[in-house]
Amino acid sequence: MLNCVYAGLRSGVRAQLAGVAIPRNNWYRNGRDERNYKVTVVGAGGGIGQPLSLLLKQNPLIHQLTLHDLSKTKGVAADLSHICTPTQVDFFEGVQQQALIDALQDSHLVVVSAGQPRKPGMTRGELLSTNAAVAMAVACAAGISCPQALLAFITNPINMLVPIAAEFLKVKGVYDPKRLFGITTLDVVRAKTFIADFMNLNPAMVDIPIIGGHSGDTILPIFSHCSPPFTGNEEDVERLTNRIQQAGNEVIEAKAGQGSATLSMAFASARFVSALLRGLNNEANVIECAYVDSDVTELPFFATPVLLGPNGIKENLGLPELNAVEQDALEKMLPELSESIKTAIQFAQTVIKDSNLEQDQRKADAVSRSSDSTQLAQNN
What we know:
The chain has 380 residues and is of the alpha/beta class. The chain has helices at 2-16, 49-56, 73-81, 97-104, 128-145, 158-172, 185-199, 234-245, 247-254, 263-280, 324-354, 357-379; strands at 28-29, 35-42, 62-69, 88-93, 109-112, 150-153, 180-182, 210-212, 219-221, 286-293, 301-309, 312-316. Helix 5 (128-145) links the parallel strand 5 (109-112) and strand 6 (150-153). Substrate binds at residues 118, 124, 156, 190.
C-alpha cells in the first residue's frame, strides 16, 4: 500500500518544498495591550473545520481568521463574516499548493483538520494512505509562509502525521519541536465528561491527565491523578478507560457510517487553540495535554501535559507518577506507539529520498546564502 502512496506523492512534494521561508513581522495589538493573532484553519470546509471556525470566530484573541480548503470556504467565510465579533474572516480555496501557501502567509497559528475521516471498521493507521499528503503539504507551505507559526494537527492518524510533518519541516530547515502539536484534547474532554457522569459532577470540575498517543490503547488516562479523586473501584477504572479509548468508534457506529466525531472534536480543538493563544499572549500556567516531540520516554513523540508560553511549549511536564496498573498499561502501549512512529518516519524519509528533496533544499539554501552574500557586498 505504501509503495502506491510513494508513487502518487513524488511529483507533488517537489513543488511543495520549493520556495523560501518568509519571516513573520505582523503582530497585532489592541487597545488593552493584548496581542491579536492570525489563525488559519486548513480544512475549514469540512465537518470539523466549519464548527471549529465558528468557535474561533468568537475568540477575542484572534484578529484574523483565515479559512482554507479545496472548496466551500467562500460560503463558509461569508456566513461567518455576518457574526457580530471583531474577528476578520478571509478565505482561500483550490487544489493548487499556492493557495495554501497564500492562506498560511504570516499566520501565528495553523490548525489542520483537512483529510479523510475514519469510516466504520477503519483503523487510524489505514488513514495514512490518504492523509499523509495533508501533513506534507501543510508542513511545506508553513515552512515557506509562516516558519515561526505554531502548527497543530487534528487530522488522523495523529500518532503518525505529526512525525511526518516533523520530517518535512526538518528538510525545510525550520523545525522547532516546541511549535508542533498533535491535538489530543478530545481524549481529555471525553474523560472529563465520562468521569463527571459517573461521579455526578459538573465536567468543568474534573481534571485528569491523558498520556501516550491518540488511538486505542495508546490513549492512557491517569485515574490516580484525577481531580477530584476518582471514587470508583478498579473495575470502574477499567471500564471507563476502555470507553475513553474506544469513544471514537462509539460515535462512528452511532452515525451509522455517515461520519466520525466532528462537533466534539471541534469543541476540543477550539479549547486547545485557545490555550495556545493564551500561551502566546504570555498568560501564566496554561497547561494542556498534547502529542509532541518528547524525551520523557524512549519514543520521540509522546503525549503528556505541557506548559504553554510565547514560543509554544515552555516546559514538558513529563510523566505523572503512575500506579502499578498504569505503569503496566504504559509498558504494553509503548510498542504499538513506537511502531506507528517508526512507520511514519520511514514513510516520510522514503518520500523525501525518492523525490531528491534534501538535495533540492541544499541547493536552494546555497543559492539563498549566495544571494545574501551578494546583497551584503553591495550594501557595503
